Amino acid sequence: MWPPLKASDMTRADAPVTPPVVLTVAGSDSGGGAGIQADVKTIEACGGFGTSAITSVTAQNTTGVQGQHLLPIEQIEAQIEAVTGDFDVAAVKTGMLATREVIDLVADHAADLPNLVVDPVMVAASGDRLLAAEAEDAYETLIAEATVVTPNADEAAVLTGRDVDDPAAAERAGRDLVEMGADSALVKGGHVPGDAVVDTLVTEDGVTTFRHDRVDTEATHGSGCTLSSAIATQLAHGDDLPTAVGSSIDLLASAVRYNVDVGEGPGAVHHLVQTRNDAARDPTSEAVERAVSTLVDADVSALVPERGMTIAGATPYAETPDAVAAVEGRLTRTMDGVRPNRGVRFGASTTVARALLAAREHDPVVRFAVDCRLTDAIEDTLASLDGTIASYNPNERPDRVSADAMTWGVGRAVETSKGTPVAVVGREGMGTGGRVTLLAESADDLVSRVETIHGTVEDSV
C-alpha cells in the first residue's frame, strides 16, 4: 500500500484564465459610485479584466463633489503607456478627462486604443462641473477617433449645438457626431422627458433605438460610467456594436432599478446587479425544489387546480420569465397524491412567471408565487392568512392591455392594495376558471401559506 500523500508533497497545476483586458481612462470617485471605481466594477462584472489610467482624484460622495485634483499630465501618460505596453488591451473607455490637455493626450494615443468608447463626461449627476468650459471643443478630435461616443442629451447639445429634447433630435445629434468622425454615436435618453427612456444609436448604416420604461428614482449616480464600461467590455468580447449596446443598456436598466441605497444623497446604480442575479439562480431553483418536495409530502391535492399547480421562484433581480424557476409541467393530482411532472428549471413557467413579475413591478421583494384552485371553501380559508387578500375581475381589464388576465390582475391587485397582498383571487369563475395566487418573499413563507390554507380546508371537511 502506498503511503498517504502529505499536503507538503503535492503541487497543484495552475489553471489561468484569459479575460479580455479593458482600459478605463477616467477620474477617481471616492464615493465609489462613478468614475474609475464604477468602471472597474462593471468591467469585471461583464467578464473583462479592468485596468486604469486615473486622470483626476475627486473628493465626492452621494451629495456632490467637494474637491478635485488633476494629476500631472506626464503621470496620466505614464499610466496609459504602462498598461498598453504590457497588456493586450482589447477595448478602452474614457470618462472624466477634465481638461483640454488630457483630451489631447488621449487623442494622441488613440492608435493604441482599440474599440475606443468615448463617454464625454462634462457634468456630474449632482450638477457639479467636471470639464473646463474651454475644453469642450477639444472633444472633436477625440470623437473622430471613437468607435462609439456616448453623450447624454445635455452633452450632445454641447457637442453639436442642438437641443436634444426628443428621439428625433437625438437622431439628428447622433448624425452630427458621426459626421465629426465617430464610427457611431449613442445618444442617451435618460435626460429627455417621457415615460420611456429612448437611447438612439446612429451609425453610417442606419439608426437603432432602444426603449426602456423609466424607473422612478434619483439614484442614477454612475449610470453613464457603467453603460460605457459595459459597452467597451462587450466589444472586447467580440460582440458586434448593436449587440454590445443592447446588452449594456439592459444591464444598466436593471442597475438603475435595483440601485444601491447608500449615503445621505441619492444612491448609486448597482454595477454588479447581473452578477449577483446570476449567482442567485441555483439557490432560487433549490428553494423551489424544497417547496415542491414539502407540498408533495403534505399532499395538498385539495388545492391543486385541474390544470395543475405551478410553484415559481424569481431571482432577486428577475425581469424576464427566464429568470423565474418553476416546475416543468406543473404539479398534478394522481391516485397517489400530488406529483411533479418533471423537474424544476428556469423558463418552465409562462403564466405564473409573468404574474409574479407583474407583482414585482410594484414590490420587488416578492420572489415566490403559487397558483391554487378557487372554490368557496378555499376562498373562505384565505381569512386565516396573516396579510391582505386582494382580488381582480378579468372583465375589468382595459382593451389596450395585451397581458393575459392573470398577469394584469395580479399586477393590478398589488398596485392598488394597501400593502402587498399575500393572496390574489382571480374571479374568472369558480372551479376550473378561477384561481388564487399566493405571493411571498421567501419559499418558506409561501409553503407556510399553502399549508395554512390546506389545513383549514381539511379541517372543514
TrEMBL record:
Residue ranges of domain Pyridoxamine kinase/Phosphomethylpyrimidine kinase in the record: 29-270
Coiled-coil annotated residue ranges, if any: none
GO molecular function: hydroxymethylpyrimidine kinase activity; phosphomethylpyrimidine kinase activity
EC number: 2.7.1.49, 2.7.4.7
Gene3D superfamilies for this protein: 3.40.1190.20, Class II aldolase/adducin N-terminal domain (3.40.225.10)
Thiamine-phosphate synthase ThiN domain location: 288-451
Keywords: Kinase, Transferase
Record has Transferase as a keyword: yes
InterPro entries (UniProt xref): Aldolase_II/adducin_N_sf, HMP/HMP-P_kinase_dom, PM/HMP-P_kinase-1, Ribokinase-like, ThiN
Secretion signal span: none
Pfam families in the record: Phos_pyr_kin, ThiN
Protein's UniProt name: Bifunctional hydroxymethylpyrimidine kinase/phosphomethylpyrimidine kinase
Species assigned in the record: Haloarcula argentinensis
